[in-house]
Amino acid sequence: MNAQPQPFDYYLNTLKNNYAQFSGRARRSEFWYFALFNFLIGVGLAIVDVFVGTMALNGLYSLAVLVPSIAVAVRRLHDTGKSGLWVLAGFIPVIGFIILLVFLVQDSQPYQNQYGPNPKTAMSGSVSSDA
């Protein structure tokens, strides 16, 4: 029986095992927990930077997680059956961000697609809802 990963495990797994992996698929929970912890760490480092009087910590952290952030977004798009090139839509002001956001919140394609097997079934053996 496979245990369900804890939220912070998704963040660590993306940094350790999938740092620059652009192939395959990423569950919604993997993407959104990674985004959540990136946001929280970024806010924390920004607060420290304000007290220290520099922007070095937040800037260095943002630079360090740039590649894995793009990689997990590409794998998330693959999970919905979209090309990873859709990540470039984020450069289009407002409408591109909205389009990308809609794609990122969509549910996984239930079965194997051209990018690989469904990560939900690979972890649990059955397809279930993934928030």
Topology (elements, then pairings):
Blueprint: H1 7-16, H2 28-52, H3 56-64, H4 66-79, H5 95-105, H6 119-124
What do these coordinates show?
It is a single chain. Helix 1 crosses helix 2, helix 2 runs antiparallel to helix 3 and helix 2 packs antiparallel against helix 4. The protein has one domain. 57% of the residues lie in helices and 0% in strands. It starts with 6 loop residues before the first helix and ends in a 7-residue tail after the last helix. The longest helix has 25 residues. The chain has 6 helices and no strands. The relative contact order is 0.17. It is an all-alpha fold and 131 residues long.
In N-to-C order, the SSE pattern is: HHHHHH
Structural class: mainly alpha
Q: What characteristic shape results from the CA principal axes?
A: globular
Give the termini separation: 21 Å
Low-confidence stretches: 125-129
Total number of distinct structural domains:
1
The gyration radius over C-alpha positions equals: 16 Å
Separate helix tally: 6
Largest sheet: none
> What's the number of extended β-strand segments?
0
Helix content: 55-70%
Overall pLDDT level = 90
- Work out the strand percent: under 5%
Quaternary structure of the protein: single chain
